[in-house]
Amino acid sequence: MNDKRRQIRTRVCRVADGFCEDNVRDTFDSITNRPTHEYMSTKEQTIDLGSGIKLSGLLIRFGMSMFSCLTLMWLALQLVEWFFKWKLLSNSGATGVTIAILSCALAALSYTFVYFYRSSIETQRKIIKREKIADLEQDKQLDKTIIANLHAAYKKERWEEVIKIGSVLSRPLWVTGKYNLRVEVGRLVEAAAAYNDRPHQQASALIDDLGWTKFVLGEVNEAKEYISHGISIAEKCDDYYMALKGYRHLSGISMEEDNLEEARKYLENSTDFAKKMKDGVRKKEVLAGVDVNMALLSFKEKKWKEALEKLEHAKNVYQTLKDEDREVKVYHYKGDILLEMGRINDAKDVYREGLSLAKQLSRKDCVLRNQIGLGKVATIKGDLTEANRNYSLATQLARELGRDVLAKELESNVPKQHII
Predict the structure, then answer these.
(1) Chain-centre distance of CA 398, in angstroms?
(2) Which of 92, 132, 260, 353 is least surrounded by CB atoms within 10 angstroms?
(3) In terms of Cα–Cα distance, which of 309, 312, 406, 412 is closest to 364?
(4) Which string of b and e fits 85-122 if b means at least 16 CB within 10 Å?
(5) What is the pLDDT of residues 98-125, one digit of tens each?
(6) Residues 163-173: pLDDT tens digits?
(7) Domain boundaries in the chain?
(8) Which of the following CATH numbers is that of domain 328-420: 1.25.40.10, 2.30.110.10, 1.10.10.10, 3.40.50.720?
(9) Are 343 and 306 in contact (CB under 8 A)?
(10) In this structure, are residues 264 and 238 in contact, taking their beta carbons and an 8 Å threshold?
(11) pLDDT, average across residues 262-276
């Protein structure tokens, strides 16, 4: 199993809270553990580029340079003798010839070194470019394989297999920004859960995989329908955790639409369901998420201090739970608040820290938000070159994530303030 598949498999099992059952592992391995050449035959080929600058080639180039230099020097000396009647060649003797040869050798060696350096840089660029293309092809192939296997299981009415694998994949697909694939997997899981009378899994697929992901992709009305349906199912089966998440998601959508009163009402509903939950890790985690949304509501109301306090509290909870995947989202929200407060340099530091952590965790959504934040900082500081660079990177990533509306905003270098 290569590094890419090992990383995804590790994340899948970790997200499953250590309960990645053997049959789920085996099925996931059967999906991903294909011969490497099926995924990426070009990556190994890029190594051949490294041997493109061979010793024999360098020696030939050195020899040609040496010959050209000697020829030019001989012609120059002949011209000097012809014009000025100086017998340089005949009068210089062996010492002069030696100096001439060494001078040509030094010039040829310098030229060869410059050629080698420039060729090495160009070769490295080609390797990086091909590796990126190969990684993209590998990701596409992996996505197709995953969905093909789930479709096959769904057609054979192996509902439990679809639910187990799809549910475990949900979080990794979210944090790695594979939104469209998450929606496709979510549809299969939701239907399989309905057929197999698994209301908890059906509510989860509706609220997270379909509802919240659809919102991120800009399909707001459809997102609301999925989330509302999921909440009704969660309430019927006393799944307080998913009901709470559903109302929390609705509060985020309301804030995006600047309906702050509705957002507050949804957050109050979330808090009511939290009171019904048993104490434990899940309750702490989901309540930290409510704190984040409350901070965003305070941010919308320009209550900066209150917003920062709630974010800091949520961050401390995530750190206690060792949940970096959720902790990382706090940084760009904090940066946005500091920026609105006029603390430009503090905001820049927070965005940088968040960007670094997001890249380590492959949280593309957080990479995007921090990149946008740095673009805003650069714009305020009047550094248009840096602003354009950050907005350009953010635009590329937004398109990669399927967030076309945001990408269009970024192309104009005037991004709006978004909840996510």
Answers:
(1) 10
(2) 132
(3) 406
(4) eeeeeeeeeeeeeeebeeebeebbeebbeebeeeeeee
(5) 666 677 777 766 776 777 777 777 777 7
(6) 999 998 998 88
(7) 37-132, 328-420
(8) 1.25.40.10
(9) no
(10) no
(11) 94
